[in-house]
Design a protein that fits this description.
The complex is a heterodimer. Chain A is α/β, with parallel strands linked by helices. Chain A is built from six helices and 13 strands. In chain B, strand 8 (about 120) and strand 9 form a beta hairpin. The chains are: A alpha/beta, B alpha/beta. At the A-B interface, helix 3, helix 4, strand 7, strand 8 and strand 9 of A face helix 3, helix 4, strand 7, strand 9 and strand 10 of B. The complex binds flavin-adenine dinucleotide.
Chain lengths: ~250, ~325
């Protein structure tokens, strides 16, 4: 099976988020970048599918400039076979999806995996857009995938439960925890890191670079006032504050 | 011209987030000087459909045959009706998160999700949205004439208009390449993303056997239960309850954090709740810096007392 995993390079979850002076751009100085956590579940699933089937290839693909390469090397160290970088600063979901689907149209895959969203811009749209551009089914918030020949059983999370779906490959999924468990995620070992250095990381040029949305500015949410502490022997007071002051119960 | 709104139903009923989306659509329609058409997919009876009129829909198009899990079928059914629409509104449901991006690609209309306010400009459409897991508010515009907007739950108020709507049933043969086998839902469970009150607990609770009081507190408040990431990772609670940057986002009116330290990744996903309460034995717990109210104390003493006190007033 030929699996393509879309990987986004995002600020580490512990990062303090800052913006350039007039709020026009994310300020990446001093920020560590990591594989988008939702993509990591998808990458791990891809590795497991490849191992079970005893063949095939896992390709990772990232739209970005050269600064995303360390994160791509990490994905290679975890076990992906090769990497494609589309050489363009990702500006919105539409342009990212357009580039990835244009690549996939000439390099078909059996399974395309994205994360359900990226933890930076939280657009949550690249997977669905790729699916539409390729006229393929799309199952988002995917928490179960069992491949049996070309027939597959999928589970997606829904409000208060889950839904069972059958589909034939190829299709696109948006992954999250549950696709594989947290404990199944892989930490690159020394051998993996060494091998990753010599795995192919091919750079291709964008084809369209057309975006449908544009960021105008960013602001941080207003700081909260200080916390009102209530004595632990006076729980009634807390309940009264919630009822009469905050008016939330 | 016109505003379309996708009105999601669960087992034939709408929820608050659906009515929020219709209210939002109606305010958008006023900016454009036009009217709202709602699209309902799946089986919903007329008395339920007619409720949409009270939030501003003048017409409801009901398409019974299309299934929610079939993102291609849903997208095509909506696209068939979207020719004259200047704006298409969604709530941020699981299904909407599959359809809205597809529709954006199909119709070449810019899509913006996590929207928290009505558009500040309609030409081009410009809105505020949450980004960086609620660590930032972003102002975004679309590069298309039309717009697709998905509204963050509990961020736009319900506006009852007292209006009514006409209902039209439409046949659709749109179907994608998937088969929906069925759903497994826990009945009576309130969804975390939409809940107005969320009672959440962390590793401070020591073990899964101690969740009875958390469930009871949630129940008497009419809220949902949630947990921190390690709690779901060690299997004390289901993954579907994991909230935070890498779990579900919470936008509740009241978020009660019990025995949760308040790590940056946890706060990122829950911070946009209006009021947060922390209950923690450790006065240095970072959650107290983010909370509006707090009690430094033992959850096993404080929570039962809270239950007792709340029972007195409800
Ligand atoms: C990539 C990444 C992503 C992450 N994403 C998330 C996420 O989405 N959501 C998330 O929650 N975490 C996330 N985390 C984990 C996060 O960093 C914290 O480890 C986690 O939130 C801590 O959970 P906790 O507060 O339940 O446990 P702890 O940090 O162990 O805190 C337990 C708290 O309980 C208090 N306590 C103990 N006994 C009592 C008692 N009897 N009564 C009252 N209080 C008591 C303690 O004082 C302490 O503050 C992520 C981490 C990483 C690295």
């Amino acid at each position: 099976m030929n699996i393509v995993v879309c990987i986004s390079s995002v600020p580490d979850t512990t990062s303090k988020i800052n913006f350039t002076e007039n709020g026009s751009n994310f300020d990446s100085s001093g920020v560590q970048f990591v594989i988008n956590p939702y993509d990591e579940f998808g990458l791990t699933k891809a590795m497991m599918l490849k191992e079970v089937s005893g063949g095939g290839k896992v390709t990772i693909i990232t739209v970005g400039d050269a600064t995303v390469e360390p994160v791509m090397r990490k994905a290679l160290a975890i076990g992906a076979d090769e990497a494609i970088r589309i050489n363009m600063t990702a500006t919105d979901s539409y342009s990212t999806a357009t580039e990835i689907s244009n690549y996939l149209k000439s390099n078909p895959a059996d399974l395309i995996i994205t994360g359900k969203e990226s933890i930076d811009y939280n657009g949550g749209a690249v997977g669905g857009m790729i699916a539409e551009m390729m006229k393929l089914p799309f199952i988002n918030a995917c928490i179960g995938l069992e491949v049996n020949g070309s027939k597959t059983k999928l589970i997606r999370e829904i409000e208060g439960g889950k839904e069972n779906i059958l589909a034939n490959l190829p299709f696109v999924i948006g992954g999250q925890k549950g696709l594989v468990q947290e404990s199944e995620l892989r930490i690159p070992n020394m051998r993996g890191i060494m091998q990753a250095r010599s795995k192919p990381l091919n750079i291709i040029e964008p084809t369209a670079n057309e975006s449908m949305t544009e960021s105008l500015n960013f602001k941080k949410p207003a700081e909260k006032g200080s916390c009102k502490l209530v004595d632990s022997n006076d729980v009634a007071k807390l309940v009264s504050l919630l009822q009469n002051e905050a008016k939330v119960i | 011209m016109g505003v379309l709104v996708y009105t999601e139903s669960w087992n034939g009923s709408f929820r608050k987030s659906t009515f929020e989306a219709v209210s939002y659509a109606n305010e958008t329609a006023k900016l454009l000087g036009t009217e709202v058409t709602a699209i309902s997919l799946g089986k919903v009876n007329d008395s339920e459909l007619s409720k949409l009129g009270n939030y501003g829909a003048s017409k409801v198009v009901s398409i019974e045959a299309v299934k929610k899990g079939d993102s291609q079928g849903c997208t095509n059914a909506i696209a068939d009706l979207a020719n004259d629409a200047s704006a298409i509104i969604f709530s941020n449901t699981y299904t909407a998160k599959m359809i809205a991006p597809r529709l954006s690609a199909k119709l070449k209309i810019g899509a913006i999700n996590n929207v928290v306010e009505i558009a500040s400009n309609i030409s081009p459409f410009t809105v505020k949205r949450k980004a960086f897991s609620t660590k930032a508010i972003e102002t975004t515009k679309v590069n298309s004439k039309k717009v697709i907007l998905s509204i963050s739950p509990n961020s736009f108020r319900l506006i009852e208009t007292g209006g009514s709507c006409i209902i039209e049933s439409v046949e659709s043969t749109e179907k994608g390449d998937v088969t929906i086998e069925g759903q497994e839902t826990l009945s009576g469970k309130i969804s975390i993303s939409e809940a107005e009150i969320v009672v959440s607990a962390g590793r401070g609770l020591k073990g899964p056997e101690n969740w009875g009081m958390i469930e009871e507190l949630a129940e008497i408040l009419g809220g949902a239960t949630a947990c921190s990431k390690p709690v779901s990772d060690i299997g004390w609670r289901p993954h579907s309850e994991h909230v935070g940057q890498t779990g579900k986002a919470v936008t509740a009116n009241l978020y009660i954090a019990i025995g949760i330290s308040g790590a940056i990744q946890h706060l990122a996903g829950v911070n946009s709740s209006k009021i947060m309460v922390a209950i923690n034995t450790d006065p240095e717990a970072p959650f107290f810096k983010a909370a509006d109210y707090g009690i430094i104390g033992d959850a096993f003493e404080v929570v039962p007392k809270m239950i007792e006190e709340i029972k007195k007033i409800t």
